[in-house]
Amino acid sequence: MEGIHEERVTAWFEEHVPDIKPPLTFGLISGGKSNLTYQVDDAAGQSFVLRRPPLGHVLESAHDMHREHWIISSLYDTDVPVAKTYGLCQDKDVNDADFFVMECAVGTVVHDIDAVAAISNEDRYRFGKHTAEVLVALHSIEPSDVGLGDLGRREAFLDRQLKRWTGQWEATKTHPEPEMDQLLRLLHERKPEQIGATIVHGDYRAGNLMHHNGKVAAVFDWELCTLGDPLADVGYLLNSWQTADEVEELSGASVPTADGGFPTRDEMIDWYATGTGRDLSNINYYRAFSHWRLGCIMQGVYKRFREGAMGDQDMDLEAYRAGVKRVSTIALGLLE
User: How far is CA 49 from each of CA 10, 29, 89, rounded to the nearest angstrom?
Assistant: First the structure.
């Protein structure tokens, strides 16, 4: 199995995972440029998950196994459903890169329409409500109470994000995009005051949640987690909570909520506002910011493909270029 030294990793399992029964079998669940996820099964039918960085040369800061393990372990036994962790290996002699192991949660990862095909409308609605409730739970935790007080800076979250992504935008700009520039100006002019700081997941959407019996069984992919403005998570979630018409307009992607049966955005907003007591009257700012950040990401991909930095992968470059204008136009509409 590429990315796994099976004999040495098995020895690590025997030392760190109680009641493990070799031989172990390894299968890749998801991979690519993000962290790699493997399912590990033992001879007794037990299943585990192993996470490691991508293969090849990567920036360790972008794929920090210690940090992700720290976050998940700290949130275990809170009201935020995460998998139980069994250990972190930072000995490169074992598998050439750091990795950590956690339990294999039971359920379905809600990553596309196909994944929700077998989920009833009743359970879709219950899952959506619980999605809002889990975000309330995450944002209600005092980071220091669970050992995450040093996870990141708490203040000036939007300032830091705008600075970071403006740098990305300027570095990858290949042609005039007046809507993106106008949007950036408005995001600076209308930036709200940050009220409090919480743990921010950074990529909280259905595709990073596991469904089981109408509930969120586990929250995944904590790579972008930090401390900061909780409403950034809410705006990002709302943008991903798309209807069928919006999916066609935004990306044509197979977004699970587009299949129907899920709560509306207004219901998600009401549940979050009621659960936290936070004022969401300015939530469209955070939605616009999330669209602008997506435009920056898309522009970066467009430039890399145009310059041949992504190899021979197929890519509709014009669709990506048009997508940057599309998301910025939608964001400007949200700020009207």
Answer: 13, 9, 14
